[in-house]
Amino acid sequence: MIRLATVSPCYNEEDVLRHSVEKLTSLFQRMIADGLITRDSMMVFVNDGSRDGTWELIRQLHAENHFVRGINMSRNVGHQNAIMAGLMTARGWTDAIITLDVDLHDDIECIPKMAKEFEAGYDIVYGVEVSHEADGFMKKFTAQTFYKIQTTMGVENVYNHADFRLMSRRALDMLSTYKEHNLYLRGLIPLIGLKHTTVDDVISERNAGKSKNIFQKMLNLVFNGITAFSVRPLYAIYHIGIIFLIVAFIVACYVGYSILFGHIEPGWASLMLSIWIVGGFILISMGIVGTYIGQIYSEAKRRPLYHIAEILA
What we know:
2 domains, eight-stranded mixed sheet, 16% strand
């Protein structure tokens, strides 16, 4: 048997939290009866600066349910940092940790499978989404597009995997040696290596409340993942610049030909179009370079990823 913990970041999850605890408690009791996990296993909820009564509810559930533990962040630090805080705080309490969203849209029946894979010798077990029926078209489309873009940019990740995974204490100790400020765990954890496998994850509807993974946050996460793990956008600027030089040379040849043979026509439209294209390319290039400079700026300051105000252990 293993001493297992689940870690779930919470931001304004008062509506869904109690129901999720009830479902996880039922699962834990079944796994204890099956001899998969010990009775001192736990579910850890990380309150990421919620503005509703999430932390007060975690306190109440902690008093009612011996499985429940809580970590209260001093302020909102974001989804990835909240997960990291939970992992680093709880890694000394357990043999393995499973991260999952508190709305339980991931298939919690994968948790016993993950525990069995851990006992079989795997240090990391990824939950890979095999069904997106509960997601709308736009969410499915953007998720698939983001994965493909990241793969094209050279980011090493597990296709269709979000943040539903099991990690052994050994894997967590290795993760603790990574000190970057711009966290993208989906790209960082595969760099650890170790023996790993996957389980199929069927996504379901939220029990209550609304998803906090809005499009802007997803977009920021994707850009962070690309710029933190790949320099291909910088090389792409170089290659596009060469293409522009080639096109400029061809245009110069055409202009020379027109001058020689007297075929000069008013070219206001083409001139303006060229200015807009080149100007747009320059601005995009500056934006990409600026993003990398911003990443360097954030890393160079070496500020703490988070501060914990209170722990309910």
